[in-house]
Fold each of these.
Amino acid sequence: MDKLHEKYEKLKEYLKSLESVAVAFSSGVDSTFLLKTAHDVLGDKVIAVTAQSCSFPKRELGEAIAFCEKENIKHIVFESEELDIDGFSQNPVNRCYLCKKEIFEKIIKIAKEYSVENIVEGSNTDDDGDYRPGHQAVKELNIKSPLRFAELSKEEIRTLSKELGLPTWKKQSFACLSSRFVYGETISREKLIMVDKAEQLLLDLDFTQVRVRIHNNIARIEVNPNEFEKLLENREQIVSSLKEYGFAYVTMDLTGYRTGSMNETLKDK
């Protein structure tokens, strides 16, 4: 058995040892793979739990619902409005902690209602390098991270997802829309909608990976460098649409797409 499949077996054995789990499910690459594997191992002792909010695009919620229906997995969707959390809308550097803590506390209550023993989430080894205040909430609330336990990277998860026939194996990476804001800039429902519309436009134009970062009234578009030319080819449509959504200026980031670019200005991590 090769190293990758040894990790996969390690993951399955670990999930089996948990006996019953509630998977924090966002329909992303990692949580979909985790949910599928958990369901394969534990069957109806698995539930999927998804937080619905203005920072979670409707397309992602729709995909989450469709996947659970297809796989016959019990799925609970609950309201979790981040903007109601004290201090969240001011976008402090620990914003992710505030959000994750509130979400996981609600998932814990749901798990108890369904007599589920453990909560699991989909972070992997690639999440260890960046500034991730949400990990503090995971640790404080004793949330399990099976993919990290099995030492699986994002690329390995994609490979295994492809083997399992999961449509998410080549899905673009996604993060909460609130992560598109500069720390300290007020997060509002209106601006979240602007970002969501802008990213959906780029996805509809078949860009493989996108981020639209918001700096007051400026849109900073990140795409993979090999798609810079495509971005310029669609420049007029993109600029016109983003201005219609509410942006005054539309810019292209010459560094290209990367995760956590808003963390680059943080001096102390």
Note: The chain has a mean pLDDT of 93.
Amino acid sequence: MIRSMTAYTYHEIKKKWGSIIWEIRSINQRFLEININLPKQWRILEPSIQKRIRKCVIRGKIECNLYVNNIIQNNTFIINKILIQKLIKAANWIKLQNNEGIIDPLKILNWPGVLNTQNKNINNINLILMRTIDQSLNDLILNRENEGKSLKKLIEIRLYKIIKTINKIKIYIPEELKYQRERLLLKLQEASIQIDKNRFEQELIMMVHKTDIEEELDRLYIHVQEVLNILDKTEPVGRRLDFLMQELNRESNTITSKSININITTCAIELKVLIEQIREQIQNIE
């Protein structure tokens, strides 16, 4: 099943001690790019979260945001006594130099690293966070798959239109051959050139060879069938589809350049439009 790279999921969990919100957004990107934004206290979880994302996503730009609200603290204060002793010693030395000032205990407590807290709920919250990120990622993948189903339908509609256009061009080919024969004959008559039957047939064969598009039409049809087959695969197929779009576009360009029949030229332009529409849709496929 193909997946879109465009998806969004929002997952909120409410507990007695507060609430957790996971917000994950995915957009199209040539490779995999992951941006994770966590509150400072939970940044230690970033490597584990990134590993989980890489396990289920191959391509796309992923923005993963965590919001932790109204946490009821159940904290134990930890005082860094060694750091306090060093700060007091330094403050006393400064006081001796200036012979003035006092040591404010509150300012020492506010010094970075002096006073730390240990939340007794933190381990329980971490377990919930990791469990719920898995749920959120599952929702994201489901959304990508649902969007992929819609993309597949749109692409298939245009592929079948391409097949119809190929068949239409094949109907016009005998008409083009007749036109080339009459055109060559008229040129020879206008130039008052004596027509040698064998020479005439050789010239006609060369002209037909230069404008022959049967091979391009066959390759177009083969590429379309390959795209239809790939759309039914389960692994990521976006890059393969993108390559096939280049091949389809190359064949349609060749048909346009070779054709001297207005009907075939019109059909070739229609092919190019359909291929471009498919290419735009494929840019969102993982």
Note: The chain has a mean pLDDT of 82.
